[in-house]
Amino acid sequence: MLTGTRLAVWGDPIAHSRSPLLHAAAYAVLGAEWTYGKRRVDEAGFGAELSSLDASWRGLSLTMPLKSAGFRASVEVDGRARATGAVNTLLLDARGPHGYNTDVGGIVAALGEAGVAEASSARILGAGATATSALVALSEMGVGSVEIVARRPEAAKGVVARGAELRMRSTARPLDARHGAVDVTVSTLPGDASLAPDIVASLADAGGTLMDVVYGTWPTSLSAAWTERGLTAVSGLPMLLHQALRQVRVFVGGEQDQALDDEVRVLAAMRRALVGE
Q: What is the rounded CA–CA span in Å between residue 115 and residue 230?
């Protein structure tokens, strides 16, 4: 039985996190008298911090660089966490931490809001943990062919291999390659990443709808290029919103795909908190 009422987001850095605002808005609507804070925790200190938590703790949201550590610490993980090797949500009970990946569902929902409910081809920029979550999300949307673009294609081998496991035609290409047309592009590059204008133009000309998962730096050079061409470009804010909603579902009911009671009001309150209304 879950009795804890304390929650928090952990990561390093953490000062910028909007998760406390999102979660506080949700629990206010639900009438749950829970607290949700934030704590700076690095990967080296994660194990000790986790083991120090008592029964008053209900769960944790994890951001970089703790998603792999969260996966390793979990006594049980959901299918999306297993597919990505990354956990961004821990539900705590007497048996130990239960790990979930809500980033995948957040990406699917955010792209759906942007008008992309399904696609056949995609391009992912970057090869880190978020790229793997994007890969799994695109697989759930029916994408059969995906191109992983990285400064060093050899760094994308792990993501390419995961794509093959998902029965996707996955390849790695350098940023300066000639890019063919795709239905959707997901960029997991830092918002301040420096990209040559010709590379940006090549990606935008053939990139379909863009989801640029950053939200602290906007517009990015990529999103500006998409907009200049009259194409759809969305930031990481919708992804942040929808992955947080799925975390709330986990903390309330233990299942990220089970809608909350009064979820329409909960999501509306979270959306207002996100944009500062």
A: 15
